[in-house]
Design goal:
The complex is a heterodimer of chains A (126) and B (787).
Chain A lengths: L1 H14 L5 E7 L5 H10 L5 E7 L4 E7 L5 H10 L11 H5 L30
Antiparallel strand pairs in A: 1-3, 2-3
Chain B lengths: L16 H5 L2 E8 L20 E4 L7 E2 L5 E5 L6 E5 L6 E4 L5 E6 L26 E6 H4 L7 H4 L6 E5 L7 E5 L2 E2 L3 E5 L2 E2 L18 E8 L13 E7 L8 E8 L3 E11 L4 E12 L15 E14 L4 E17 L11 H8 L6 E18 L7 E17 L2 E20 L1 E26 L2 E22 L5 E12 L3 E15 L2 E12 L3 H4 L9 E4 L9 E16 L2 E16 L1 E4 L6 E6 L4 E15 L2 E14 L15 E10 L8 E11 L2 E2 L15 E2 L2 E13 L2 E8 L22 H7 L13 E10 L7
Parallel strand pairs in B: 1-7, 12-15, 29-33
Antiparallel strand pairs in B: 1-4, 2-3, 2-5, 5-6, 8-14, 9-10, 10-11, 12-13, 14-15, 16-17, 16-42, 17-18, 18-19, 19-20, 20-21, 21-22, 22-23, 23-24, 24-25, 25-26, 26-27, 27-28, 28-30, 30-31, 31-34, 32-33, 34-35, 35-36, 36-37, 37-40, 38-39, 40-41, 41-42
Classes of the chains: A alpha+beta (126), B mainly beta (787).
Amino acid sequence: MRYVLILMALALSTVSGAQKKAEIEFQVSGVCGMCETRIEKALDVPGVIMAEWDVETKKATVAYKTKVLSEEQIHQLIANVGHDTAKIKATDEVYANLHGCCKYRELGGESCTGENEQDHDDRHPE
Amino acid sequence: MKRILLICLLGILTPNGVWSQLNVLKGKVLTDESRIERSSEEPTYIPLPGAYVRWSHDSATTIVSDGFGFFKINKAEVGDTLVVSMMGFVTVGWVYNGESYVDIPLKAGVELASAEVVEKKASTQLSLLSPLDVQSLNRKELVKAACCNLSEAFETNASVDASFTDAVTGTRQIRMLGLHGKYSQLQVDNMPGPRGLNVIKGLEYIPGDWVHAIHISKGAGSATQGYESITGQINVAMKNPETADPLHANVYFNGMGRSEVNVVTNQKVSRRWSTTVLLHGLRNERLNDRNGDGFLDVPLHRHLIGRNEWKFTGDRGIRGEYAITVLETGSGAGQTGAYEGLALPEAWRSLLDASTADWSAVTQIDRVEATAKTGYVFPEAVWRSIATQLTFYDHWHTHRFGSNHYDGRERFFRGNILYADIIGNTNHSFTTGLSYVYNAFDEQLQFEVNDSLDLQYSVEREEQVPGIFAEYTWSGNERWSVIGGVRYDQHNLFGGMLSPRLHARWSLTENVSWKIAAGRGFRTPNPFMEQLGTWASQRQWYWGYDSQGLQPEIATNIGANLTSKFRLNYREASLTLDAYSTRFENKLVVDLDQAASAIHLYNLSGSSFANSAQAEFNWDMHRRWDIRLAYRWVNAHTDRILGNPTENPFVSKHRGFSQISYASRLDEREGQWRADATFQWIGAQRLPTTVANPEPFSRPGYAPDFYQLNAQLTRQFTPEFSVYLGVENALNYKQDRPIIGADYGDNPVAQQDFNQYFDASLVYGPIFGRMFYAGLRWGILPSKKNE
């Protein structure tokens, strides 16, 4: 068991770097699993440690390094791919390019069909 | 059940007039576990086909979701409740709000693996909710190493130890909780898997590319699946009509001259029937002798395996899965001289009967297996179901090792009838049923003691075991759940046997849960196949059990598991600690220590136990990096007559394990680079004593510890096409002089000494050094609508 504690200590020591980090939570409009993929992908940039968007609560949780990014930049990154955040609205141009089922601004837009990305669960990539 | 409203609010859109004129509500049923694989770049909900959907006020009309989890139902009034249910999942009541399309996620409930006709649960790595201690390896985990077949798939898993049975045949065996794999119940699609005469070799005959997921469950397991589970259950979910892609092909080559081809195709034949065909071919016809000891480092092989599965999904609650598997394999091992100048592989069969001047080992295995699962879910009461599971196989194993012959045939039939229902409400559910096992063995052995004396021996045994079982699941509280089961089997040779099983979970918080497991199981030993490695030696077999007859092996296992999930540097991590203890009431003791020229088998007198503990830490360190660290400790002892050492041989007391995985960002064609490396430390193992042998025929009593490094690089060009390149045993560690009696260049071995001392079964580490391999995977994925 001592061995385990040493391993744990090692793992912890690698993360206790001196950089300043912050975690924020805010609303992001979206509809489905495809939106989740798009939002989380948009935050796949240096400086973001963790980014999650919850399809049920529409809440984005982002942990980031404050020296690399600002909170506004994070909102902008999401708006850039077409999703409105609590602070920044996506432009109509980008929004228009969203998949039909992700058009959160129009109530009752084209529904997500059974053939969206969710079907592909874990079967690829191989 | 109060939480059900919380989890069914995915994808709600209030429809406008256009959509509401269509008088149908469309929707999709899927799992609620969105993160099947933490490194996934995409959310991965699994659609749930075969879920039941109906309006609460109209029990006469029940709709079953189709192969994509999709359903259509006539609309009702706003405010009505839609009831969605499926076995193994918590039933959901969803209030209709005028939508035209809904996604309905179902939460995995307490899983009664057996009662599910079709396994559908999302394959999370670790489950906090199931009372069973289950670790699931899905496709993404399996492709981290080119696991050509199941026996190699565990090389990158910390819970299961894999080792060679001997230095000539290349056969691998597994250990769980410090005990031989025969004490684990191996299942394929929840049906009996490698067992009986096939208990070791059977792992080789499950190609890695046929496997959809592997579920490793420690502890006694469910009472509904038979009495043979002692240390745990390994359930291999094969690719089936629901999980297979329309086409998948894989080729593999390695530096030892082995080539493999796998093809899996999937086709929907009609609305109700779909079928999957799986083919596997393997050959290795190159004579490898890298260490120059005159023996092949890896055997010559030829395998042909085919499987066909049909799946039926009826509209009225009837579902079925029917599969047939056939295999034909041949392999040759031993001294290279035996094969030189022969036309391979035709010559192998001729070598089965005639012994060669050089020592050789030739094996031929043929097998046919058929399984049928049929289930019916009562439409008016979706928690009530009845299912039958039938398995039949006929297995032939013929081999010649040196001048010893073995010819075995096993026939097996098992019928299981399961009835699942609830008591009052879904907090109390149970599964009960009857089983019947027929297992017939016919083994003919012939040993050449010396030139003038041949010993013939035959084992003929017919087992008939009717059984009755019941399992009760209580899930009335989010913090607690309990599965208690018991089975009684009336064995025609050993009498009545009671196998109680208990699993319980207690969640301290949402992210920390305790699990305990206790249970008893028994099995009939088949020593000639379980000790396959011993055939690769000059050891004489002694059956010390003749006076009492062959007795069943009976053991009790208890254990505890603590699983916690937490955040480390904002990213997901988990820590699992477990400890298990197995105690034998009876065991067929395999004693290799009485003399270096003998194997003694006798019933246990005294005690035999195995205690094990494991710690495993997983951390999703970075979006693209994952790490896993594990440590496993085992202490296993068996009392032997004549006071030989009690520590079980070939068990490393300590094993350390680390794995690091990298996956690059998906490019615009969903291409990706992936890299995985596994580094392990395998501690010292006791070896059966050979001190009485003169030099150079003796070996140390303990094997040294050693390190193993495996690595693989995968380039996925598109999800349909990827290539991989890997290396096994990158540090090039090789067991020192693995074969006693082989000439390692120091001094020639006289034939007489060879006949007396030859032993290739004392294997603790790799025989073949560094080995490179490469392969590609290509397939056609299910059609996808353009974005």
